[in-house]
Amino acid sequence: MSSNSQEPNSQKANSQRPGVSRTTGRRPVKNRQSKGRGFVQQLVLVFFLVLLWVMLWDSVSVLSVLSGVVLALLVTRVFYLPPVVLSGRFNIIHAVIFGAWFLYSLMHASVEVAWFAFRRRAVGAGSVIACDLRTSSDLLMTLVADTASLIPGSIIIDSDRALGVLYLHVLDCDSEEKIFSGKAQVYHIEELLIRAVGSHRDLAALRATPDPMGLKGGERR
């Protein structure tokens, strides 16, 4: 009789514990899945931080990789970072397209900047331009900024995370046409990355604003 009276009490106690199933007395599988998803996201974040570190050093060696891993773990564990939310989708075709375009732009811009050092005409004044991105993803915003900075001739100098605006300095950008070209390149980078790794929300924003430069009928508004 005493065992029967204790059984409802134990079930009641289990039902009052947060995150515990009333029927089995065990924590639901969702908690384990969320922890596993969080671990995967942290692993991806560490991987991209190490990749960024190696790209900044422009050298693939044991020392650069190990130092990148140490710094990535230090940054993710000690310093506060906003949570990186992955989109959950990856399009291999658009990823290859982005990679091919990036390699071509990297070589083309390198030759163009090198030519500035040999030509007789002086290099035109640079300009700081602002690009209002369509995505609201911190990860995509960072990838766009890194890609634009890695291409010679342009570098990100500031960003407004709340408004999703990137400010970059562009070399030899002293005319309206060159300013337009610099902004168009950033928006093209954003479009390629959204199609490759962007979320469905980013794809919807891309479809809603296919022309962020304000072009209509081949003319600027």
What descriptors fit this protein?
two-stranded antiparallel ribbon, mainly alpha
SSE topology:
Elements: H1 2-16, H2 29-57, H3 62-78, H4 92-116, E1 127-132, H5 138-150, E2 154-160, E3 165-170, H6 176-197, H7 200-208, E4 215-216, E5 219-220
Antiparallel strand pairs: 1-3, 2-3, 4-5
Helix pairs in contact: 2-3, 4-6, 5-6
Short description:
The chain has helices at residues 2-16, 29-57, 62-78, 92-116, 138-150, 176-197, 200-208, and strands at 127-132, 154-160, 165-170, 215-216, 219-220.
Please state the structural category.
Answer: mainly alpha
Computed over alpha carbons, the radius of gyration is 25 Å
Query: Strand fraction band?
Result: 5-15%
Give the ordered list of helices and strands.
Answer: HHHHEHEEHHEE
Helix share, percent: 55-70%
Task: Identify the strand order in the major beta sheet.
Answer: 1-3-2
In angstroms, what separates the terminal alpha carbons? Answer: 84 Å
Number of strands: 5
Shape summary: globular
Mean pLDDT value: 79
The largest sheet, given as strand count, sense and whether it forms a barrel, is:
3 strands, antiparallel
What count of domains describes the coordinates?
2
Total count of helical runs of at least 4 residues: 7
